[in-house]
Amino acid sequence: KWIKKLDIYAKKCKIQFLSAPYHKEAVDELIKINIPAIKIGSGEITNTEFLKYVAQKNKPILLATGASTLKEIEVAVKTILNKGNNKIILMQATTQYPSPIEDTNLKVLEHFRKKFKLNIGYSDHTPGYTAVLGSIAFGANVIEKHFTLDNESDGPDHPHSLDPIQFNV
């Protein structure tokens, strides 16, 4: 019920709206508002029926790989490709919130690019932006960084998110 409202607000702010749906009905709602891409959260990487459904929408897919094995990633990529969608961006992530910088495993980005011959990205859960800069050095084409108005707010995302001043650096 929030998708349309969020899309309208994002347009008002002159930003593109994206979302990570976790069921087919949410995918359909996102398609209705013509989002530019769909993010598949790492918790869905083994849900091949869901991957097929999203792939058939022929939108670029940001495929989160946090907490996934290489075999799971291979199966997910093959599943999406077999539905005729080659617009996949593999997103490296560490699913710990916040994630210590020593656990970022940025070098895997090189491996992903060489093995899968796809665009790569990085979903950052570390404080600051050092890991983001490192991911760019390793060839990330897409960056996901969490945003907050207050790092002291309740919730798992706020401590590692950037506030408006930090985002402006």
Describe the protein's architecture and organization.
With 169 residues, this protein is an alpha/beta fold. It has helices spanning 3-12, 24-32, 48-55, 70-82, 108-116, 130-137, 164-167, and strands at 38-40, 61-64, 88-93, 119-124, 142-145. Strand 3 (88-93), helix 5 and strand 4 form a beta-alpha-beta unit. The longest helix is centred in the middle third of the chain and has 13 residues, at 70-82. It is globular, with a radius of gyration of 16 Å.
List the helices and strands and how they pair.
Blueprint: H1 3-12, H2 24-32, E1 38-40, H3 48-55, E2 61-64, H4 70-82, E3 88-93, H5 108-116, E4 119-124, H6 130-137, E5 142-145, H7 164-167
Parallel strand pairs: 1-2, 2-3, 3-4, 4-5
Rg on CA atoms, Å: 16 Å
The sequence of SSEs as H and E is HHEHEHEHEHEH
Helix content: 25-40%
- Anisotropy-based shape: globular
In angstroms, what separates the terminal alpha carbons?
34 Å
Instruction: Trace the largest sheet across and list its strands.
Output: 1-2-3-4-5
Secondary structure tally: strands = 5
Number of helices: 7
Structural class: alpha/beta
- Give the DSSP E fraction (strand runs of 2 or more residues): 5-15%
Fill in the keyword field for this structure.
single chain, 169 residues, alpha/beta, five-stranded parallel sheet, 5 strands
Overview in brief:
By secondary structure, the protein is an alpha/beta fold. It contains 7 helices and 5 strands; from the N terminus they run ααβαβαβαβαβα. The N and C termini lie far apart (about 35 Å).
